[in-house]
Predict the structure.
Amino acid sequence: MSNARQILVIGGIALAVIGMCHGTWYAVFAEHQAFDRMGGSLTAAFTHAAQRQPAQLAASLEEYREAKYSHERQVDAHGHWIGLAMLLIVLGVAFDRVAATEWLRLILAIGLLTSAVLFPLSVLLQTMSHGPLARGLAIASSGLMIAALGGTALGLALGSAGEKA
């Protein structure tokens, strides 16, 4: 098994474990509190609306928005880690068919694994900071994933064309 293939398959398995552990942790220790926070803020919002208290209504809706935003990011990170892990494993199985030098396949594999780790991590970082660092990391890591997937797709297409000749 080539080094690039090992990186993808072993990295994909490790990433799936990370995603499952994160999802389990969130479901057991944090999700119920997030639902309580969302439900409580909505209840308060309806109460403030009925009492015609616009300032408190706005504050309750803002609290709901923040709680929902954080919850969605946690679930997204869990799903992206596992989904990208499966993609890495599938690509790893066929990666020796990529028409490229071993060095280039290794670079592509490292790019795929790095972006598969960093993108969901940057999504989690957005729950702590809405600043440019977390968003920039999300953009950069997704760009790296697109570039590495494009290179892999091109290599697989060239590899398939070479087999037919």
Q: What stands out?
A: DSSP finds four helices and no strands in the chain. The two ends are 25 Å apart (CA to CA). Residues 3-25+70-159 form one domain.
